[in-house]
Amino acid sequence: MQYGAIVVTFNRKQLLIESITALLNQTVPPAKIIIIDNHSTDGTKAELQTADILANPSVDYRYLTKNIGGAGGFARGMQIAAADPNLDWASMSDDDAIFEPDYFEKLIAYQQDHPNRQILTGSVYIEDGRLQADQRNRFTNWSTFQAQAVPEREYRGNFEFDQYTFCGVFMSVAVIKQVGVADAGYFIWWDDCEYAVRTAKLSRPVNVSAAKLIHKTALPSLDFKSKFVPDWRLYYGQRNRLITIKRWRANSLVSLGWLLGFYARLAIQLCGPFYRGYRKMVIRVYLEALRDASREREGLNPNFMPGQKF
Known about the structure:
By secondary structure, the chain is an alpha/beta fold. It is built from nine helices and twelve strands.
């Protein structure tokens, strides 16, 4: 098996070096490492040159003329991988995913024993040792795409699930060719979840639990539920989820009922302490997301720009 590793990066040169080094040090290394640089301004390319990474013939570095978001970056990387006749499989990850040396060896070994499996993942941990279980979920409702994390006890073995993220997912290039690439218009968040919905028609993912990576994210998703974080990406997460529901819902009446209930609960929550200090921001996020999703208006919203503070 010849595989490529797609890595999307933006202004995190030190993490990127660590991520690429982990890929180069795999016991079964990728035939090609596709780096999509989303118009970094922190000297990423110079850092890669200093580390002699760009001199490696397996590295394909693409510097984009503008930041097209994580969704656009993955879409571009998928296009490159699908167009390469030498690649059979491809992985997707951001620059904060640090693979253990035998990550891909374990995935490939599993696939060789189960040749009908076309989508595999490994287990995601954060730096403090906690399992980031919400990276591997099962849908509880295919009309609203509500999901539950696979219980930690199931990580004692391998398991099937529904919703993966672009944090170490590994799939056959044939799947990409059949369903197309990620929706670049999502810009950020839910692009991987929407892609999981599309690929579910072809192959259910399997998590090979012994394959592990460390997710060096600044704010783990596990911690979002304990306190409100005024993040510009919240708009894109809500808008893109609603677009996904509109496109792929199993039952429109069920999704409509959920939508009405969701916004009713939000109205009640706004009266409580959770959103204190950010109520106007939250109202704007969820109303603009609803408006734009109803029109399937994608791309950047000038009211919620990368890095914007609230």
